[in-house]
Fold:
Amino acid sequence: MRKFDIKKFFNELAKPEKRKKLNPNGNYPDEFGLNTKDHFYSLPSLEDALINAGYKELTMTEDDYGGETFLFSEIDNLHKNFKILDKDIDYSPIFHLRDTPEPDDGLYYKLEELGYLSSKKSDYSFLLWSDNYNSNFYAPEVLKVYKNIKKEEKKTFTKIALKENISSALGKDTHYCKFVFLNNAYNWGTDSEYKELLSKNKFPQSLKNHFLPIVKNKMKFAKECGNKPSDIKKINSLIAIIDEKRIKNKSFRPVDTWTSKGTKLGKGEAWEFAK
Structure:
């Protein structure tokens, strides 16, 4: 197989695609200033960028059972999928969210992730957003494109995650909050809270304050669904600021079922319940 060209793939991923307007009266954001009467421009999907770069054969991969599946079809495998393309591609989850109702009656299953895609072989890098609601998976979308990203721009990632994300998954108007895993390479509190996290593994109080309204929203949602008061009282949000590797391999456990002991935390790691 011919060698994968990261630079070519990233260039295609950063290039707006021309698309025909299906509804002349529809609302088509002109984020690139290129829209016309009949066409609009948007960034390509990962799959389209692979095809445009000439790697259509790489859009499929082998699943765990020896069959074929689409690349980038599961949030939990995104970092592995990028390594299939090239070991020099780095995918870093910034936040990872998992949520089900309380009690879990199968009403919904929510999985969401914001990640940073980069490579030392390209000047371009990207914020990617992925969402899975009741197995309706939205393949990673490019949320932001950066060229020669600066440290100051990386510092905005947590603000984007908490306040400006596509679905507002971590915003205060949602109720998705059962398990929230945050990459400890980023500052999730004030500067003083971040220093205490690094030196004392102290969880940022401002982060708990951010999630409390979300927990209350979930309690309100559960009440509207007719759940018992005793079940509603149990609703909470576990928020863990942990090393990126733990997010990728799903190794964090607050309490192990067999040993009754939790994951031993390293420097700059902490977890708390919102209430």
User: Anything to note?
Assistant: The chain has a mean pLDDT of 89.
